[in-house]
Structures are given as structure tokens and as C-alpha cells.
From TrEMBL:
Pfam families: DUF6788. InterPro entries: DUF6788. Residues 5-56 form the DUF6788 domain. It comes from the Bacteria. This is DUF6788 domain-containing protein.
């Protein structure tokens, strides 16, 4: 499982700057960004539409990986405690 991403998807409304575009007077164009926290700071990466599903899968895989790590940790804690008591 190498397709792993940590972070969360957020939608931002961005105005493209064209004076004739509908967004000049209304809401900006909806753009998807991946917000992630690394090395002490939040990073924002633009997610093109064709990459959206890839990013979503990566985020889901991260959740799955975390669940696996939590379960392994629990099992190993159990082992450690039994060893201590024995
Ligand atoms: Zn626009």
C-alpha cells in the first residue's frame, strides 16, 4: 500500500481575476485543496479534478494504515503486559 496521504480535503472559492467572469461579482470558482501538517506547518496543495479520486484513496488508505497500527500496538501492549506479569 504505497498510495497513502495524510491531511484533509478542503474546498476554497477562488476568484480567477478575469473582470468579465461570473466570479468577479459572485462566489469564486470552487477548487479542491489538500491541507496537511508537516514539519510544524500547515501546507496547502491544489488538487486538480483528475487527481481528486487519487487523493481521496490516499486519505482512506492512511486511515486504514492507522487502524492497523493501532491494532498492532494494542496487541503488542498486551504481549508486554503479559510478559511483565509472568
Ligand atoms: Zn472566474
Amino acid at each position: 500500500m504505497d498510495q497513502v496521504l495524510r491531511g484533509s480535503l478542503i474546498t476554497r472559492h477562488v476568484k480567477c481575476g478575469k473582470p468579465t467572469c461570473h466570479c468577479a461579482t459572485g462566489v469564486g470558482h470552487a477548487s479542491l485543496y489538500l491541507s496537511s501538517f508537516y514539519h510544524g506547518k500547515t501546507q496547502m496543495d491544489y488538487v486538480p479534478v483528475i487527481w481528486e479520486q487519487w487523493v481521496r484513496t490516499g486519505l482512506e488508505n492512511y486511515e486504514v494504515a492507522q487502524d492497523i497500527l493501532s491494532e498492532l500496538t494494542e496487541l503488542n501492549l498486551e504481549l508486554l503486559r503479559r510478559r511483565d506479569n509472568g
